[in-house]
Amino acid sequence: NGITGVLLAGLLIFTFSFPPAYCAAYYNIDLDLISRGSFGYYGSILTNLNFVLFTIILFALEGSIMAQGFYVIIGIPLWIGYVISALIVFPPVLIGMKTLAKLQTYTTPLWLILMCGPLIYLVVTDFDTVDYFLDFEGAPENIGKSSSPVLLTMGICLALMTQIAEQIDYLRCMPKPTAKISKSVLFWTVLGGPGWIIFGITKQIIGMFIGTYLFNNGMSTEDVVQPVRQFIGIYKVMLPDFFAYFLALLLVVVSQ
């Protein structure tokens, strides 16, 4: 049910994100102009308001995950963690987007190792975890295929639809397609636009995989849905507790 919901939501997000991404890349216009041409001036205001609210919610969610990491790993109270999560972003933002871009570039290899390492470790050392994940049916009352869990999963995932607004900020700077680079422009427009959801789907399914593994090994349902506790649990399988907590905190900070 979970995988079905994620895949269906991903398909819808990809489909509906392609038109604005294409317009942004090929006509070098931002979301405001795209929505104004489609829905008029007032429609553009409402569209942009929707994306602004999404951004606020996204930042709040990311800040809460970081604060949760500070609380679980270091013991910092949540409200102080929220303040730290907000203030820690100020220095690189004040310096400029180039600094943020460099920071993301330099930390991407580290993020990939921290994110994918546990998954690779589990698959290599205990391949039965894959079979368990695919056979996992959840709580007894939820066993079997049902439309309700699928639709609920889709509803959660479809909240990511508005992520395309952030992708458009980059796509509008794409070079003009010529006969020489037209295929390249189209490829990167698709990958950098609606194609972002491919990576989003992958991360969500990895989260499901790790969650079912930890649930099968005794972690409570309350803890298994928290990203911080997920990675603490999975790192503990691989490493001593100190390193597990350290790497989990590092992953949270780098990710957020």
Automatic annotation (TrEMBL):
Gene3D superfamilies to which the protein is assigned, alphabetical: Hydantoin permease
Superkingdom to which the source organism belongs: Eukaryota
A GO CC term assigned to this protein in UniProt: plasma membrane
Keywords linked to the UniProt accession: Membrane, Transmembrane, Transmembrane helix
Record-linked Pfam families: Transp_cyt_pur
Record-level Gene Ontology MF annotations: cytosine transmembrane transporter activity
Keyword Transmembrane helix: yes
Organism lineage: Eukaryota, Amoebozoa, Discosea, Flabellinia, Dactylopodida
Protein name in UniProt: Urea transporter
Record-annotated membrane-spanning stretches: 6-27, 39-61, 73-97, 109-127, 185-214, 234-254
Similarity comment: Belongs to the purine-cytosine permease (2.A.39) family.
Membrane topology: Multi-pass membrane protein
Record's subcellular location: Membrane
